[in-house]
Design brief:
mainly alpha, 88% helix
Length: 209
């Protein structure tokens, strides 16, 4: 029974986390459409698709770093993970900057391939890339929170970020359209990253075995 309770305490926070994660990705699109900005929604959605490869690279790097950080945890616990955290953060930052710069440099080519309809989307691409950047901090420090068993903070971070995203979206999108959506998305992303960085600093080292 004790082991079951510990398992549920660890796993249940991921339920609100996944729901909030969906809201973070979809709320601004939904509010844009409901607020009557269908034309801007098309350009905004196209720009978001252009930024997808950057997210894919970060996610792939996270799949690589997860097991590696697990090995560090088993070798030396949270202390060992914290010792390597600056280097890990830089590696995640590189996983965003390198494909992000490639996307920006490739915008003229994309515009030439897609045609004139892409011109209205180009302006949104750099801002959506900015919204991806905080994920580098989120994923790196997530490892410490996860291995420290404090998954309630992961759920709390994503729920908080989604509330900020939705709240700002409802406030700003009707007045400013896609630019309001960008502010909401960037604010939510930075809020989640900073929350997890704070949570990682509060994890109490425990025996890794």
């Amino acid at each position: 029974v004790r082991r079951l309770r510990a398992s549920l305490r660890f796993a249940l926070p991921f339920l609100p986390h996944f729901v909030a994660q969906w809201l973070l990705g979809a709320a601004d699109w939904w509010i844009l459409g409901k607020a009557g900005f269908e034309e801007e929604l098309g350009s905004y959605s196209l720009a978001a698709q252009v930024a997808v490869p950057v997210n894919m690279v970060i996610t792939a790097w996270n799949e690589h770093m997860g097991p590696e950080m697990g090995e560090h945890f088993r070798a030396g616990g949270i202390h060992e993970m914290r010792k390597r955290l600056p280097q890990v953060r830089l590696s995640y930052l590189a996983s965003a900057l390198i494909p992000g710069v490639a996307v920006l440099l490739g915008l003229p080519l994309i515009a030439w391939v897609v045609g004139p309809e892409f011109q209205s989307a180009i302006v949104f691409v750099p801002f959506l890339l900015l919204a991806i950047l905080p994920n580098t901090l989120y994923f790196s420090d997530f490892q410490i929170v996860y291995h420290g068993g404090q998954t309630r903070w992961i759920g709390g971070a994503t729920v908080t970020a989604s509330l900020i995203n939705v709240g700002l979206g409802l406030l700003l999108i009707p007045a400013f359209g896609a630019y309001g959506a960008i502010v909401a998305r960037v604010s939510g992303a930075f809020a989640r990253a900073l929350f997890v960085v704070w949570a990682a600093s509060k994890v109490i080292p425990a025996d890794p075995r």
